[in-house]
From TrEMBL:
Originating organism: Candidatus Purcelliella pentastirinorum
Any one GO molecular-function label of the UniProt entry: thioredoxin-disulfide reductase (NADPH) activity
Assembly mode: Homodimer.
Stated name of the protein: Thioredoxin reductase
Gene Ontology CC annotations of this record: cytoplasm
Top-level taxon of the source organism: Bacteria
Enzyme class: oxidoreductase
Keywords from the named record: Disulfide bond, FAD, Flavoprotein, Membrane, NADP, Oxidoreductase, Redox-active center, Transmembrane, Transmembrane helix
Cofactor(s) this protein requires: FAD
Catalyzed reactions: [thioredoxin]-dithiol + NADP(+) = [thioredoxin]-disulfide + NADPH + H(+)
Amino acid sequence: MLVIYLKLKVLFFNVLFIFLIFCIYFFIFLFREIFYRIYLMSKYSKLIILGSGPAGYTAALYSSRANLNPIIITGLNKGGQLTTTNNIENWPGIINPISGTDLMNNMHDHVKRFNVEIIYDHISSVDFSSKPFFLQGDYQSYIADSVIVATGANPRSIGISSEKRFLGKGVSSCATCDGFFYKGEKVAVIGGGNVAIEEVLYLSNICNHVYLIHRRNYFTAEKILLDRLNIKIKEGKVTVYFNYILYEILGNDNGVNGILIHSSKENNNDLKLDISCVFIAIGYIPNTKIFSKQLILEDGYIKVKSGLYGFYTETSISGVFAAGDVIDRVYRQAVTSAATGCMAALDADKYLNI
């Protein structure tokens, strides 16, 4: 019996040893396959810029001139939300009005002049836990020594079909951008927070009259803004409709000419307002979802270092920088996005050359 036990024991350890050898070879093979597929087949760049709006293109312009040979990955909306703006009159140096699409095409051509590689792809996941950084796109994967996130933010929409149909033709999300085109006319603003009240205050100085439509019976904006709003109401420049929602946007081939608003309290109590433009001001959604477990965010916006001593645009991870609307919940202008894109490129250049 003892001999049989010893033989079985030897057999067991031999089988176990063979099994362990097999596991080791299997995991080595698996690791090599993963490494080959993810890294060796990934496109490498010293610097990858995510986003093709003013921030992304400006970052590419400055980083290419610093010989960083950046790659731009455009995202789904090439050119960013600026492409939905019909006329831009506040871009420094461009005297005559230019469409958002034309401005972004000019920026595209500008960076191409410096041989920037532009790839139409959408990044669905990132791994910033180790270096080089790994990014997975819909069409291929990428690795980079440094990344600039300039994925922008999208205005929240009401969600009605006519909103999309008249976008850029009397439906806007930016009074500073488009308000001037409705100077002396009647307009409407939808919302009740800081963004909406700020839009109303701005428009009340240039438009004939502003209708403010809010679904609740109270505002959520800061008191100082509400004090300024009350002054405009007393001056007869603003009319507020509480407990109303935007039901339909009316218009024709020339653009918007009115809206229907529906009472959120009483059935069949609809009002028609004759206006030339409706500004949707119910907030913005930063395009930062894929970074939520990678970077420190604040209300969805990427938190950057800021300060006075450089690396202003650096995020919570060294080597990852952010620019444009993903870090800006206040100004949200094309020119400010471009400015932070420049800063991010300079920060990335300094980081890569330390």
